[in-house]
Specification:
The chain is an alpha+beta fold and about 110 residues long. The chain contains 3 helices and 5 strands, in the order H-H-E-E-E-E-E-H. It has a 3-stranded antiparallel beta sheet, with no helix packed on it. A two-stranded antiparallel ribbon has the order 1-5. Strand 3 and strand 4 form a beta hairpin.
Length: about 110
């Protein structure tokens, strides 16, 4: 796949998908991050104007960072209904970094 192909917008295949996208069904998940036993770092620790994110960071070459999030009942209902989660990752025009979603803690990618 070329870079242009990977950056191309997803195509919609049905009018149902168009309607679901354009209606009020699209919403931001109201998740809360949690402290968890395996955490060993807080981001951004030195910037008081931001909320602090507890996380676990590995000390290997990948330096994987894992955080723990709790979803609201409303979010769970929406995910169950739609079976979709959209992930937005800010790249600031740098290469996209690998991400992973999981239901249990595993610090190794």
């Amino acid at each position: 796949m070329t870079r242009a192909e990977s950056e191309a917008p997803a195509t919609r295949t049905s009018s149902d998908e168009l309607d679901a996208w354009d209606n009020d069904n699209f919403r931001v998940i109201n998740a809360t991050w949690l402290e968890f036993p395996e955490q060993n770092v807080v981001y951004p620790k030195h910037l008081r104007e931001y909320k602090h994110l507890p996380a676990h960071r590995t000390d290997d070459r990948e330096s994987a960072v894992t955080s723990c999030w709790e979803l609201s009942d409303e979010d769970l209902a929406e995910i169950t209904r739609s079976r979709r989660i959209y992930v937005t990752q800010l790249t600031f025009r740098h290469p996209l970094q690998p991400i992973r979603l999981a239901t249990k803690f595993d610090p190794q990618p």
